Amino acid sequence: MKNEKKGFARAHTNIALIKYWGKANNELILPANDSISLTLDKFYSDTYVTFSDDLTENSFFLNQIPMPKKSMKRINHLIDFTKRQYNYSGFAKIQSYNHVPTSAGLASSASGMAALAGAVVSALDSTADLTNISRIARLGSGSASRSIFGGVVHWHRGHDHESSFAEQIVSEKEIDLNMITVVVDRHQKKVKSTHGMAQTVATSPFYSTWVDEANRAIPEMITAVQNNDFTKIGELAEHSAAMMHATTLSANPAFTYFAPETIKAVRLVHQMRSTGIECYFTIDAGPNVKVLCRTQDITRVHNFLAHEFNEQQLVVARPGSGIKFTK
Ligand code: 2P0
């Protein structure tokens, strides 16, 4: 009879308020600086794993399409690490479904790797510890370590596998913080974040300043989040994003994730603020602009942005929950 172990997990994606940009250790994915993020509702990944003694290798299907072997490196690393931890020798068949529309301009690697870690660990350990799942998710993608928890989350950079994990600052019910993505360019060819950050670490003379400033902002952001101080959260988040993008322009060769429409959306955020609609921008490793606002202002911000961008370019997200092991 087949000896099978099954696991399932659902994890939501997240947006960083204090960005992770650069690694201190590439293999363990230890970041150079701490980061803080908001987990988002609506956008999530569902992952099913079946471990079996009968399988001879791992396989991964994303939205039912098999992943090529050459793209399996980090997935295999994550699975091998977990198998060693739980002293298990079988292989895994994984089916993952992304509910992160590409039209939303959000990355799916955070939710995808978080759900993978949750499914793999829960298959091998029914008393799964969320901190351990966060560490394992980190091996798949740094930002995935934060997607284990809901609300606002702090990823401690740490100095080894044990000490680099995320934890919740406040739950999704305790924070009034929403995000409207302005999808300015869906098709732009981009420098993948893994490569972009590596190039920045290696060549930007501003890089050590980035690390110092990011780490300095962490306790300030924690206090702002605990106090639900939207103004302070927004100011710190906007400054963190602007500093991260300054490091790409100071890399050699220089590069930028900005597109012309990125600047247009940033200007609209400034215009809104000058007319009394309080909102702030953040931008990841791509051209889309994410606008942070309070719940009371979602409609006003959305309508203002809708003067310049069409409905399909605007995607509203609210705070989301942490990882779940049932649907
Ligand atoms: C973040 N980003 O904090 C930052 C801000 C993008 C810009 O984490 O190499 O896919 O897999 O650890 O997590 C995207 O990078 O990179 C990211 P790896 P990841 O959200």
UniProtKB/TrEMBL annotation:
GO CC annotations, alphabetized: cytosol
One annotated GO biological process: isopentenyl diphosphate biosynthetic process, mevalonate pathway
EC numbers, comma separated: 4.1.1.33
SUPFAM superfamilies per record: GHMP Kinase, C-terminal domain (SSF55060), Ribosomal protein S5 domain 2-like (SSF54211)
Gene Ontology MF terms: ATP binding; diphosphomevalonate decarboxylase activity
Domain Diphosphomevalonate decarboxylase-like N-terminal: 11-166
Keywords: ATP-binding, Lipid biosynthesis, Lipid metabolism, Lyase, Nucleotide-binding
Domain Mvd1 C-terminal, first and last residues per copy: 180-313
Family in the record: Belongs to the diphosphomevalonate decarboxylase family.
Protein name listed in UniProt: diphosphomevalonate decarboxylase
Organism of derivation: Pediococcus stilesii
Phylogenetic placement of the source organism: Bacteria, Bacillati, Bacillota, Bacilli, Lactobacillales
